[in-house]
Amino acid sequence: MKRNEVSNCLLCNSTLNQQITWKALLTNAFPKTFCIDCEQKFEPYENTSDQILSLYQYNDAMKDFLHRYKFMHDIILAKVFREQIHKHLSKTRATIVPIPLHPAKLKERTFAQVDELLKAAHIPYEHFLEKTTTETQVGKTRQERLATSQFFKLVKECKNKEILLIDDIYTTGATIQHAKSLLLESGAKSVKAFTLIRG
Fold first, then answer.
1. Which end of the chain is more exposed for a tag (fewer CB within 10 A), N or C?
2. Which Gene3D superfamilies does the annotation name (predicted)?
3. Global pTM value
């Protein structure tokens, strides 16, 4: 990995004054991709359950990040939280399973945002699920979302596997719940979840 990979903050474009330490070189730590000022705008999420872990709260800074990353197709922003994601996922024994986009949505967006976050963090993953509907959950209440019929299908055997579902944002929990129930019904040993953001 190149140590001078990013010379300016990916969020505000200010110059990054990185001091390359021996520790960083020896541990192959990720080079910084955003400045301290930007870093301080993100609020860590206080987790109360080990079933679903989230890194950050959904605040204005995160709203801006998500908009640029997902909807403005600024794919390089996948590198912003790679160190934090790597730290939390690199030692898990569970099989990492990203929440997928519907194929039509993937074609429209041109990249799968969860896959790219994992790639940037050097986290291996497997696809066990395929999304079967393009129906949006935006504007629905939690009850309405949970009452929606199953919108995933299994594409790979998951029997007796410990699975960690990965998504970019957790809002009502309907997406995670649908995926979790399908995997457990299909024989998964356990299913937990990890998200970058908690809405």
1. N
2. 3.40.50.2020
3. 0.88
The CA–CA distances, whole Å, from 49 to 38, 42, 52, 67, 104 equal 28, 21, 6, 28, 34
pLDDT digits (tens, 9 = 90+) for 89-140: 999 999 999 999 999 999 988 999 999 999 999 999 999 999 998 776 666 6
Report how far residue 3's alpha carbon sits from residue 115's, in angstroms, rounded to the nearest whole number: 24
Alpha carbon separation from 18 to 31, 47, 54 (Å, rounded): 8, 31, 28
Domains with residue ranges and CATH for the chain: 1-40 (no CATH), 43-198 (3.40.50)
Q: Quickly tell me which residue has 């976050």 as its tokens.
A: 117
